[in-house]
Amino acid sequence: MKKLIFILLFIPLVTYGQKVKGEKIFSIKASIGEWQSSVGEYLNLKTIYAPYTKGVFEGVAKGKVLPVGGDFPLYHQEDGKTYADLDIDLVLLTEENEKIYCKATGVFNYITETFESLKFQTHWRFRTSSKKYRYLNDVMGIGFGTVLSPDSGYNFQHDIYDIYIK
């Protein structure tokens, strides 16, 4: 009897389960300029400001990152590692001259001395007045970051996906 009850409870989960789908929205490569350290301290967390100086992006649109905005993370260091809570603001300018404001929060944990990434994940929101890209105003993107090699000309790459249930 217990087996029959278990099967009856389990079948609807398998049969009617939702599937998670996703599509890539953007790949953004960005460079930071002279960053300011020790901007402040809050609850034993330090802050810096890392302004964006240049960048490029591709995906649902293609263009450049404007040299405005940047990252204002809170971080602490422990056992040779840095744990950062990201607070990113940047503006994309498409090849069609449309502007898309991007706001991201996330986590970037890395080995302090080598800058080797341990975890680099972000959550993105977008705002635009463009009719063509207006749908981005309702997207909550999930991003995965990469630290780029110095010879690439950029510091970071963000690969951002629109994740939804189908």
Can you walk through the features of this model?
The chain is mainly β. The chain has one helix at residues 2-15; strands at 20-32, 36-42, 45-59, 63-65, 70-71, 74-78, 81-94, 99-111, 117-127, 140-147, 156-165. The protein contains one helix and eleven strands. The radius of gyration is 20 Å and the shape is globular.
Rg estimate, integer Å: 20 Å
The number of distinct helices, counting runs of at least 4 residues, comes to 1
Encode the helix/strand succession as letters. HEEEEEEEEEEE
* Number of separate strands: 11
- End-to-end separation in angstroms reads 34 Å
The class by helix and strand makeup works out as mainly beta
Beta-strand percentage range: over 45%
How many strands, which pairing sense, and closed or not: the largest β-sheet? 11 strands, antiparallel
* CATH architecture term: Beta Barrel
- Share of helix among residues? under 10%
- CATH T-level fold name: Porin
Shape descriptor reads: globular
Low-confidence stretches: none
CATH class: Mainly Beta
Number of domain units: 1
Report mean pLDDT, rounded to a whole number.
88
